[in-house]
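Table S4 entry, Pantothenate synthetase.
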Amino acid sequence: MTTALLSTADELHARVRRGRRAVVMTMGALHEGHATLIRTAREIAGPDGEVVVTVFVNPLQFGAGEDLDRYPRTLDADLKIAEQAGADAVFAPSVDEVYPGGDPQVRITAGPMGERLEGASRPGHFDGMLTVVAKLLHLTRPDVALYGQKDAQQLALIRRMVRDLNFGIEIVAVPTVREEDGLALSSRNRYLSPDERRTALALSRALFAGRDRHAAQEALRARAREVPSTHARAEALSALGESRAAADAHAVATASPGGPAAVRAAARQVLDEAARLVPPLELDYLALVDPSDFTEIGDDFTGEAVLAVAARVGTTRLIDNLPLTFGAAS
């Protein structure tokens, strides 16, 4: 197939629509993570639908001292990747096309959720992100839009905006794509030197350590629920050489809930070790949050959660996260 390159909304609106239109929004510098989003969009749109990939480096979501000027612009390569992944069109508008007359005076405000974590580290970032997402949704007029789970807070805010402001568009989340060594794919990875990249692996290792600690706790609790606290059962377990396992399981089952604290501690240990590497990892935040509002969860929390981390290695700032489930929902 041949992917059309469009630069104006009029060109996009002139296309004949058949079936569903699925949109993947990017800032360019496409990689396998973006390609996965596009392939998923192709599956959702089906052979009769249309997949549109937007490529736009949005100035509103870059703060003072951030990397707007050096953010990679690779449109020719992006077009090839989009075509290979199944896109029908790449919409790559200019800043003047998206913001005619200059910066918009009316903008979307992210609210309290937008002031936490990424919002606290990058003031105004989410207001700019939501403003351009709203504009691009209006310009592309999709039935469904797809976003990666790597940007978990962004995804949560887009879902909230679409729901609160009645956009009538389906939002689909696509799991994070990782390198073989675990590093989450990001356009900013290209800024890392070999030594910096080795340090950056601590982000995913920390998340995996928290996940593994959580899985071990849940396994012990499940085992405890299966072991009745009767004398006969204890004797049988002892005879089988399982008395220690039974004791551990009962200890966990009767202890006060401490799952989230243990998960944070396991992840923190990895990050603390990475802070002593050369070059060091400079932690911005480690958080275990409720994805509905990105507030920290308590020890009695049950349900879906997100373990999120942000850090700087050299001059490059990276983020990553993993979903976890606590309590009865596990």
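The radius of gyration is 23 Å.
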